[in-house]
Amino acid sequence: MTLPTPWSSKPPACKSVPWPPRDSDPVMMCPSAMRARRWWRSVPCSPSWSALKLASRRLAFALVLSVVAGACSSGEASITVYSGRTENLIGPLLDEFTAQTGIDVAVKYGSSAELALLISEEGDRSPADVFISQSPGAVGFLVEAGLLGSLNEAVLDMVSREFRNGAGHWVGLSGRIRVLVYNSDLVAPDSLPASVFDLTDERFADRIGVAPGNGSFQDFVTAMRDIHGDDATLAWLEGLESNGAKTYANNTAIVQAVGRGEVPLGLVNHYYNLRALTEDPDVSSRNHFFAEGDVGSLLIATAAGILESSAQSGPALDLIEFLLGESAQSFFSEETLEYPLASGVAPAAGLPPLAELEAATYDFDDLGGGLERTRELIAASGLEAP
Questions:
Q1: Which tens digits make up the pLDDT trace of 253-266?
Q2: I want to staple 333 with a disulfide (CB 3.0 to 4.6 A). Which of 53, 300, 348, 367 is the partner?
Q3: What are 285-326's pLDDT values in tens digits?
Q4: Which of 115, 139, 116, 265 is nearest to 193 (CA)?
Q5: Hey, where are the domains in the chain?
Q6: Helix (H) or strand (E) holding 153
Q7: Which superfamily, per CATH, for 176-298+376-381?
């Protein structure tokens, strides 16, 4: 659209002016724009006006129209995100998304499991458009409940098949590997266990820290159940409890306890200790990976999906595509020290490739339906979150 300028030498006849707003114009979809349309129609159309006066009115309206258009887009383009990831891990990316697209993002933070349960309770009335989960178990729960819509193939193809839902309801954003963090002043590397099941041995009595209420721990236990069965998993959990395992609120608390020698060993995600070493290179904590294929070194993906009930599926899909883009994936790698999962995005310098770590892989679609049973087994074992 080309607007006449005040310097037009000859004003066009009013009937030929192509730019006055019409009912079909997209910008006329909010009340402010409708008022502007009525204002325009109230302007008298007289060929006796001077060219300058007519063009000046047109220019003034063009300015009004541009402001109104901006108000419409910024006021209507907004989405609500329920995030199981903490603000420091995802907030900067949501702010950047808004800066780049103009789409406002309202965020509700909480634990992934609690937010998934909240969405289930809210049902079709949920204000959430996007659910970002710290683990695939919570999104799997929503898939089982039929509450997540399908993503398009273009977005799904940004991620390898092992890191997305088989039916296309969610995609992985970043990856973390379960490890055994240990205090190198208290534990000799050659004494470290080859399997997570070895931690119930008497030699590890009163020497291991776990976070039974943590989502990643629960996903790991769910995978153990699926691979080794409920009986073996419950026996392992009970073995930890009877072996004097100490319980902590989260991974960070475990890494800190290991670093100060309160407990020599702990089950955590790999990046928590890497962050501790970044903050204090002298801390005496190191990551130990279990033997190839051992469930103790399971790779767990963060995940995102769009609610079936969302009326903003377009902007919601834009957000997920943004989170899989190179800039966001580099943020996960360099700032949160996780593994980028989008195809073609390499991990940050200093992070070994996933292929070299030989981390255990798993069909994440099996996690969602088993989360409740996993919690029952953890409770039955006597392990209690502080």
A1: 999 999 999 999 99
A2: 348
A3: 999 999 988 999 999 999 999 999 999 999 999 999 999 999
A4: 265
A5: 78-175+300-352, 176-298+376-381
A6: helix 153-156
A7: Periplasmic binding protein-like II (3.40.190.10)
CB-CB contact of 291 with 275 (8 Å): no
Question: What would the DSSP string read from start to end of 69-105?
Answer: HHHHHHHH-EEEEEESS-HHHHHHHHHHHHHHH--EE
DSSP code for 248: -
pTM: predicted TM-score of the whole model, two decimal places: 0.73
CA separation for the pair 23, 82 (Å, rounded): 36
Number of H helices, E strands in the chain: 14, 10
As beta bridge partners, residue 92 has: none
Residue whose pair of structure tokens reads 């360099």 in the numeric block: 334
Cβ-Cβ contacts under 8 Å for 142 (sequence gap 6 or more): 116, 119, 120, 131, 148, 169, 305, 368
Cα dist from 137 to 143, 163, 367, 369, whole Å: 10, 13, 5, 8
Q: The tokens of 186 are what?
A: 């208290």
**C-alpha gyration radius of the chain:** 28
Contact (CB, 8 A) for 338 and 326: no
Q: Which CATH superfamily is domain 78-175+300-352 in?
A: Periplasmic binding protein-like II (3.40.190.10)
- 359: closest CA among 302, 301, 303, 295? 295
